[in-house]
Write a structure and sequence with these properties.
- With about 575 residues, the protein is of the alpha/beta class.
- It contains 17 helices and 26 strands.
- The strands form 6 sheets. Strands 1, 2, 3, 4, 5, 18, 23, 24 and 25 form a 9-stranded mixed sheet that branches.
- The model has no long low-confidence stretch (mean pLDDT about 95).
- The structure holds zinc ion.
- The site of zinc ion has 6 residues, from loops.
């Protein structure tokens, strides 16, 4: 007897093959059959007219802290994501020497914009080794599956102490040996990879660069040696690819004999650099190396709002006594104080910071109307200011005051150099890329891209009208099977007998994103952006329903993933 049979679904199975009408049966935590006339079931779901996909796999998240206090891992759980991988970009919380949590919090706050108070209050830090961290996570309920990675920043600080926080310090031979052993052990205990960061964009909250920024060949090779000895795991890297850097990372991956996964995005400073990196990935892949670029589904942008972490008036003297007020109160007071509005708009300094904000605003957009993630440059504040004979400051303030003080400004700062997402389409379409970059759980006061899978399907397969789209089957494969395989998770991402019963039943015509909004639901009353979706009729994790009509069921079948997973079918 089947537990569940899903009937008459429009099946997009994760393989990339064309959609087909099929029934899917589930017994326990597995898919037992796919086809027709699958026999009786305790529960039958009529999915006529619905899209049936594997659960989405998001390999680039930062739930390292949140997973200790939030059983649901939102926002990912609202977007059909059934597996997340965290520990990315070299930051995380294990291994940890007693008393060292303050530095790791400082690093996470600086690099991923998760407030110190939230992390300090939310995490109980009852571990030292990576294995103990995994055990601590495993002892708590979770709605979706999650995999961990060993972060280089935490590893360095654990082995080198204070010296480890200074990227210019080099580890001794003995410290290199310790790093190798810890990497090997973490992978054997079940970490899915080791991650590092080499971007000057990443700084601890104290302003110092991320500790792994200039780690040189001996250190990277010591980490690679740990991967080689464990014979499992991915080397994940966030780098800006200064000259020689890709080659160094490739050398480490070759030594490790393990896959290399690098972030791939378009930076305004060097809008074509990503293409050079992509071509190096393609050359490496042709020569038999396992390497891929992790790409986003849209522009990477920050959102400004009175309630967000940042907005353009936050540092203005005329705003100082509004700090801490909710956006709606700011807006209502401003409406009664036209002289204060005049000060905010007219008393502008000419500091480099101010000029930087102005340049940002010139390439910013209102998010207050219909959600549009590929806005025309003619709608940028810069273009509007010229057309409307106003300043970008006036347009920005009006935008923030709209929606009862909850207005949103979007500033796309990566993947939007040409004012179009054609570049993102090119990235997604490449065989050398996987879907990443959602950064779910990070940058919580300015970014909320955990919604990326919902955007990927609805925008790229259905809504985009200003340029070419991509086939739904291709996109689903990208967000499911291909991501899963890149991390050795052969048991998921595909709807076939024997596979894990991680599934989404989606009303694809209705699938859409809600507007991002700030909520104060973090530990210590911390705030974050969340973004919901519509269109998820059901999500299943290991055959258990976690989402029904876009709402969590409260069930918590999610498991810690220990190491690569194999399932034969
Ligand atoms: Zn990241």
């Amino acid at each position: 007897m089947n537990d569940i049979v899903i009937k008459h679904a429009n099946l997009v199975d994760g393989s990339g093959q064309a959609a087909r009408l099929a029934d899917v049966a589930i017994i326990g935590d597995s898919i037992s059959a796919v086809g027709k006339d699958l026999g009786p079931a305790k529960r039958v779901i009529d999915a006529a007219g619905r899209l049936l996909t594997p659960g989405f796999v998001d390999v680039h998240t930062h739930y390292d802290g949140q997973a200790t206090w939030d059983p649901y891992l939102s926002p990912s759980c609202w977007h059909g994501v059934t597996t997340v991988v965290f520990g990315n970009c070299g930051v995380g919380f294990a291994p940890l020497k007693p008393g060292n949590d303050a530095y790791l919090i400082n690093l996470m706050q600086g690099v991923e914009d998760i407030p110190e108070a939230v992390l300090a209050e939310g995490i109980d830090f009852n571990w030292e080794s990576f294995a103990q961290y995994m055990a601590s996570l495993e002892s708590k309920p979770h709605a979706i599956d999650f995999g961990t990675q060993l972060p280089h920043g935490a590893l360095r600080f654990y082995v080198m102490g204070e010296r480890g926080s200074d990227h210019r310090e080099q580890p001794s031979a003995d410290e290199l040996r310790q790093m190798t052993a810890l990497v090997e052990q973490a992978l054997k205990d079940g970490a899915l990879g080791v991650t590092t960061s080499r971007t000057p964009k990443h700084r601890a909250a104290d302003g110092r660069p991320t500790p792994s920024m200039t780690a040189d060949a001996p250190e990277l090779l010591a980490i690679a040696e740990g991967l080689r000895r464990a014979a499992k795991g991915v080397l994940q890297v966030n780098a800006d690819f200064a000259p020689g850097e890709f080659e160094l990372l490739q050398q480490a991956a070759v030594h490790a004999n393990r896959p290399l996964s690098v972030l791939l995005l378009q930076s305004d400073k060097e809008p074509d650099l990503w293409r050079q990196t992509l071509s190096k990935l393609e050359i490496g892949r042709r020569s038999g190396l396992a390497m891929n670029g992790q790409v986003g589904a849209k522009a990477i942008g920050v959102m400004f709002a009175f309630d967000a972490s940042r907005h353009p008036f936050l540092d203005h003297p005329a705003f100082s006594d509004f700090i801490g007020l909710k956006g709606r109160d700011v807006a209502s007071r401003l409406r009664q104080q036209p002289e204060r509005i005049a000060r905010l708009l007219q008393e502008r300094s000419n500091t480099p910071e101010e000029r930087g904000i102005k340049r940002m605003l010139e390439r910013s957009f209102s998010m207050n109307g219909v959600l549009q993630y590929e806005p025309s440059m003619s709608e940028s504040f810069g273009a509007r200011a010229l057309r409307e004979s106003r300043t970008v400051w006036a347009i920005a303030l009006e935008t923030l005051m709209d929606c009862n003080g909850e207005g949103l400004i979007m500033h796309p700062f990566e993947n939007y150099s040409e004012g179009s997402l054609d570049v993102v389409r090119e990235m997604i379409a490449s065989e050398a890329t996987i879907m990443g970059l959602s950064d779910a759980g990070a940058h919580v006061g300015m970014i909320c891209d955990g919604a990326a899978p919902s955007f990927l399907l609805s925008y790229w397969a259905r809504d985009r009208s200003c340029g070419d789209r991509l086939p739904l089957e291709f996109l689903v494969a990208k967000q499911t099977r291909q991501n899963a395989l890149a991390y050795g998770l052969q048991d998921r991402g595909l709807i076939a007998p024997g596979m894990k019963a991680d599934l989404n039943i989606i009303d694809f015509d209705q699938l859409c994103l809600a507007k991002p909004k700030i909520v104060w639901d973090m530990p210590a009353g911390g705030k974050r952006f969340v973004q919901r979706a519509q269109g998820y009729c059901h999500s299943f994790v290991s055959g258990v329903e976690t989402l029904c009509n876009d709402e969590l069921t409260g069930l918590v079948p999610g498991q810690l993933i220990r190491g690569p997973q194999i399932r034969f079918h």
